[in-house]
Design a protein that fits this description.
globular; Aminopeptidase
């Protein structure tokens, strides 16, 4: 296992293709964030670099964390905001401030893009993610997520 990592000196930069393997390894396999997912996100971010951000934290030449977000408007009359989709750090980097460094860098990019609010949708049972976001100053927002299950085989065609 690599040596423990501290937040100093950490270099935050735009993620690259050669970071993908390290990022995939940081996520539990059950979450479904595989190589194709991250490559697709990286491609999307390079297509709209002023609105989509995929950042990596580098320490001693290796990727030790990543964060992903974009500027967009949610449904139902919301103004554009910064939306955080995912953040992860390597096991040896946890509790070293890497996530905070990445979060601050993402917020800087959101501010430069002209938005003044950052949002994240988190599962109610994800205590670690919730604690991290609260430690960054995030609180419950003005929107309520609504959902429903769709029929397994789609809607029946009308005759």
């Amino acid at each position: 296992m690599p040596d423990a990592v501290t937040a100093d000196p950490i270099r935050v930069r735009t993620a690259r293709e050669d970071d993908i393997a390290a990022i995939v390894a940081m996520f539990p396999a059950a979450e479904g964030f595989d190589d194709a997912y991250w490559r697709g996100r990286l491609r999307a971010c390079t297509e709209e670099p002023d609105k989509r951000f995929f950042l990596a934290a580098e320490h001693d030449g290796r990727c030790v964390g990543a964060i992903l977000g974009e500027v967009r408007a949610l449904e139902f009359r919301s103004r554009p905001s910064g939306n955080l989709f995912a953040t992860v750090t390597s096991p040896e980097s946890r509790e070293a401030g890497i996530g905070s460094v990445l979060f601050e860098a993402l917020c800087d990019r959101f501010t430069a893009a002209g938005v003044d609010v950052v949002r994240a949708m988190v599962r109610k049972d994800e205590a670690l993610d919730m604690a991290f976001l609260r430690s960054q100053g995030m609180t419950a927002g003005p929107f309520v997520q609504m959902q429903m299950r769709l029929p397994r085989h789609g809607m029946r065609e009308s005759e």
